[in-house]
Amino acid sequence: MRKMAFLALLAALFALAVPQVFAAGTEKVLTLGVDQEVIGLDPNIVTSFSSHRRVDLLYNKLVRHNENLEIVPDLAQDIDIPDNVTYIFNLRKGVKFHNGQEMTADDVVFSLNRILDPKTASPGRSYLTTVKSIDKLSAYSVKVVLTAPLASFLEGLASNNCAIVSKAAVEQYGNLQKVEVGTGPFMLKEWVPDNSMTLVKNPDYFEKGAPYLDKVIFRIIPEQASLLAGVKSGTLDMATINDGSTIMLAKRDSNLVVMQKPGVNVRTFGFNVTHKPFDDERVRQAISLAIDRTEVVTVAEFGMGSPTGPIPVSATQWALPLSKIPYSTPDYAKAKALLAQAGYPNGFTFSIVTANSYEGGLSVAQVIQNQLKKIGVNAELDVVEWGIYIDRWVKRTFDSMVELRGGSSEPDRFLYRMIHSTGGVNNFMFKDAEVDALLDKGRALTKVSDRKPIYDQLQIALATKAPIIFLYAPFETTVLSKSVKGFKQVGNGSLYYLTYAQK
């Protein structure tokens, strides 16, 4: 039996910071500005980044990512892996949910089964589809057996969609979209929709001394310029800012700290392939050939992103360079020829669903709209409110959408759920036997040397079939007051390290 060196990793994690001793009676409050309201708080259900960033602080998973996107312990103190399909999770003892009840193996078994239940409609289900059995071995031990090896299994469990929830709370409330009963470092104190959310320190958090802040207040400020103004004036301590021009202004202010790192999330432009003319591969290829990714990054992101193919460019172990990915370099003559072959010599008109927010990608849609004019295609922008955008996404009621997809350095975790015919967030209605076969094969292998050729082939196939046009990977940017210490960025946009932030 081999045991992952999680205890050593945990020790290293604890060594990252030593709690600061604060003056008695001084409440440490950090106010964070964000441009998007949450769409629910149930970790097993939510899809939007705005929701995930709150869930980061309210719930825990069996394992999680550190700032280097490495898998480290969370609720699992360590893991035994006797063979490549068996995982035994040894849980921390004494962990409490925010309702005071202890978290045990019963909650873990319940949570994993809840994610697997199709009725839950959890995006995390695609991470667990190879699970054969989930068994409680003791009050603090759970065994999971897979039907076949799955290289991305632990990576999938690190997703917020695989967070551990309270069995009793779900039985009481039905779902947790409007309430919160997690084990995380902070607890929900107050939620004023479209205005603010106040989280307070969990006094029973399992990491001794953490969190170091007493309170975190999220303020919803849709305008990027206002977010920056808030940090400059001191009404905000930090803000997640995505607009390139605003970030450039922040970088010129010596009184601010601008933290930035390449991200694993990917901006995409996808089609509902059941809608004409997007049921024709040639039409999708033509549109891909009309899009200049570098121009999109330059105009929409002020250069603060990297053009990418189907695997985030920051996942250097897996991502093919764009020079090896077909239909990724503009070729207007070829694009027009493909449209003519498909029966659209004079182009056509369609709509792009977008929202007036960073995640909704309005600025990206505007660049695409302009670029498509070069091949005679008229793209009408369907700009909707954020809640409607999510509803359209869920119900697949669109011709096309600009999205920001949650990425991963692990290709199976990123691509399987998004593009496999059974994928939990395949909202393109795309079904292709070749793509499914490659995805199934890639996730069943465990050696990088065996998997690499599979994902190379898959990237080429996806670019050729083009149900989604992968545009670029934006940088992750946080603007902070110099008074904030100890916060670290995670390439997936997580705010987990507010757990160790000090002010």
What does this structure look like?
The protein is an alpha+beta fold and 503 residues long. It has a domain at 266-474: Roll (Dipeptide-binding Protein, domain 3), CATH 3.10.105.10. Helices cover 30% and strands 23% of the residues. The strands form three sheets. Strands 2, 9, 10, 11, 12, 13, 14, 15, 16, 17, 18 and 19 form a twelve-stranded mixed sheet that branches. The protein is globular, with a radius of gyration of 23 Å. It starts with a strand and ends in a 22-residue tail after the last strand. Mean pLDDT is 92; it is low at 1-24.
How would you summarize what this structure contains?
The chain is an alpha+beta fold.
Distance from N terminus to C terminus (CA atoms, Å) equals 45 Å
Instruction: Estimate the strand proportion.
Output: 15-25%
Average pLDDT figure: 92
CATH class group of the domain at 266-474: Alpha Beta
Radius of gyration: 23 Å
Q: What's the helix count?
A: 15
Features:
5-stranded antiparallel sheet; disordered N terminus; 12-stranded mixed sheet; 503 residues; globular; alpha+beta; Dipeptide-binding Protein, domain 3
Give the helix/strand layout.
Blueprint: E1 2-3, H1 6-14, E2 29-34, H2 49-58, E3 63-65, E4 71-73, E5 76-83, E6 86-91, H3 105-116, E7 131-138, E8 141-146, H4 153-157, H5 167-173, E9 186-192, E10 196-201, E11 215-220, H6 224-233, E12 238-240, H7 244-251, E13 256-262, E14 266-271, H8 281-290, H9 293-301, E15 305-307, H10 332-341, E16 349-355, H11 362-372, E17 378-384, H12 386-395, E18 400-405, H13 411-419, H14 433-444, H15 448-465, E19 468-481
Parallel strand pairs: 2-11, 2-12, 16-17, 16-18
Antiparallel strand pairs: 1-5, 3-4, 5-6, 6-8, 7-8, 9-10, 10-11, 12-19, 13-19, 14-18, 14-19, 15-19
Helix pairs in contact: 8-10, 9-11, 13-14, 14-15
